[in-house]
Design goal:
single chain, 78% helix, globular
């Protein structure tokens, strides 16, 4: 039932993203840095929705389901901080409108993501963030909250950046950036306490819709 619910939720989210992606490609200037980042946000979210569905085959012990579960969870843990890192760049650019200034943060974000990559790879051997038992059932590892904290802290830093610069941001842009940050933050908190449904990526899709309507 959990697999079915998540599959329908992910398909619904994917349909919304495809519509936004098509309209964005049709209307927006492909050269602008902001539009490039927004397109990248949509592409990564689509990839994560696909692999999130694969990561829901708990308890199915057929070989291909085991592979689905292993690959799906690996990609989700690997790419989630990348998605938030792109969001930081997108928010920063829409605040300052300075491409060079925004790009200065890229090396730092690459470093954070490389550290996450190392942790996720080591997790396959030590079960730090998560592990999948012999019955192909996913379990949170002892350092699961560290994994969530990486994404949460990056989101909070962006949220603080938006609040601190509210006086220099056009009101329409400010409220959109502010509103963008709220659903994922709530999604992460709910996901920690309620395991089973995909709250985080669904909340990201809502945020992308808000950004598309009010910023893009």
């Amino acid at each position: 039932m959990t697999l079915l619910n998540n599959t329908f939720l992910n398909i619904y989210s994917l349909i919304i993203l495809i519509v936004i992606y098509y309209m964005s490609k049709k209307w927006n200037d492909k050269v602008l840095f902001s539009n490039k980042l927004f397109t990248l946000l949509m592409q990564i979210t689509m990839i994560l929705l696909f692999f999130e569905t694969l990561s829901r085959f708990d308890g199915n012990v057929n070989f291909h389901y085991i592979i689905f579960n292993q690959v799906g969870n690996f990609v989700i843990f690997l790419m989630s901080p990348i998605l938030v890192s792109i969001w930081i760049l997108y928010a920063h650019y829409n605040i300052y409108r300075d491409e060079k200034k925004t790009k200065k943060f890229i090396p730092l974000l690459v470093l954070v993501n490389m550290l996450n990559v190392v942790m996720v790879v080591l997790t396959q051997f030590f079960g730090w963030f998560y592990y999948i038992d012999q019955n192909n059932i996913y379990h949170r590892g002892p350092l699961f909250l560290l994994s969530v904290s990486i994404t949460f802290i990056l989101l909070m830093l962006t949220f603080i950046l938006i609040i601190r610069n509210r006086k220099i941001i056009e009101k329409r842009i400010f409220y959109s950036l502010f509103s963008f940050s709220i659903p994922p933050l709530i999604g992460i908190i709910v996901q920690i306490y309620i395991y089973g449904l995909n709250f985080i990526l669904s909340s990201v899709v809502i945020s992308l819709l808000i950004a598309f309507i009010n910023i893009q």
